Structures are given as C-alpha cells and as structure tokens.
C-alpha cells in the first residue's frame, strides 16, 4: 500500500474534532495513541466499533493510552451519531474526540484507504509518543475489529518498548506470560538483562536462538 506505514511519522495535520481543533502531534505528545478510522457515520459495523472503544476506554486510560477516532462526515453529524453509538453498546461513553473529514482529505494522508473498495477504510494505527506508527490494522468492510486483540497488541508494544525492544512477544502472548529474547541480544547481554535467568529451547537444529524469559 502507498502512504505512511510502520516506522513512519504521522503528518502533523490540523484537525477539527468533536472536542476541539488541534495538531495531531500535540495530541500524540508524551503518550501512546490508538487512531482509528471509519468510512462514515450512521453505519452498522462502525457504530458497534465506536461503542466498543467507549466501553474499553478505561482499559486504554489505565495504560496511559489516548483514543482518537476519525470518520468521513462533519462535526454535527458526529455529534448526532454519538447517542446511537452509546445506546447500542450499554455502558459505552464516547469520551474520546472524533476527527471530521467530510471532504476525505485527511484519511489518505494517514494511509487509511481500502485498496479493494478504493475509498476510506476501517483502519487502526497505534502511534508512539514519537509520533511514529508502531502497528497498523486494516480491516475489510465485512469484518469488525476484535478489541481484545487491539489491547493484546498494544500490551505487546508497550512491553517491548519498556525493554528497549530487546524482547519480543510470541504467538498468542498475553500480559504476565513469558517473552522471547531478541536474536540481536547476545547470550552475554541476555545474562545481564535477565539476572533471574532464562531458558533456551532445545531444538533439533541445536541452534540456541529461542530464548524464553519471565519479565515484569
């Protein structure tokens, strides 16, 4: 896909939102942000997703992570839509800002385009405090997001950042489970990083590349 991708800096766009107007970098500053887009207001899948974001908001807040929505309609339409979102998902409160993009000028600059339908997509970027994209999801119009997977992936990124990317999380990893040590870390460095010790998997190849450690 053309446009910004993993490791790229999100453009510092001026945006109008349901809360106030701001530059994206000002919003991203000093925290992680989940930025998620929608093709339009009053659409079924998007209504369920924004409701889920509201219901999970406390989980993101607990992690010090901000939420920022984007939909390709104007501010008044967003405000009229919010009661539907909250009504459909009991316990949901849309306390996060939603960017207005009625002319579809912002969404291509954020590379939130569906290449199949050649239009706005339901995409999600996790943006670091350095305003760079750390992870992206792009969903087809037929498939809603899995919020537990968004949280799991976010927890993985936060864990890796905490350990300066010297660890990675294995398949189906969840918080409090063991991680694997990066191949870029020598055994000597690993012993210093993990004084409590680590385990090297015994594999047919006899190569000691799969090292597992408990971290907090």
UniProtKB/TrEMBL annotation:
Key word Metal-binding present: no
Catalytic activity line of the entry: a hydroperoxide + [thioredoxin]-dithiol = an alcohol + [thioredoxin]-disulfide + H2O
Keywords, alphabetical: Antioxidant, Oxidoreductase, Peroxidase, Redox-active center
Keyword hit for Phosphoprotein: no
GO MF, one example: thioredoxin-dependent peroxiredoxin activity
Active site: 46 (cysteine sulfenic acid (-soh) intermediate)
Pfam family, one: AhpC-TSA
All residue ranges annotated as the Thioredoxin domain in the record: 4-159
EC numbers: 1.11.1.24
Function comment: Thiol-specific peroxidase that catalyzes the reduction of hydrogen peroxide and organic hydroperoxides to water and alcohols, respectively. Seems to contribute to the inhibition of germination during stress.
UniProt similarity note: Belongs to the peroxiredoxin family. Prx6 subfamily.
Name of the protein: Peroxiredoxin
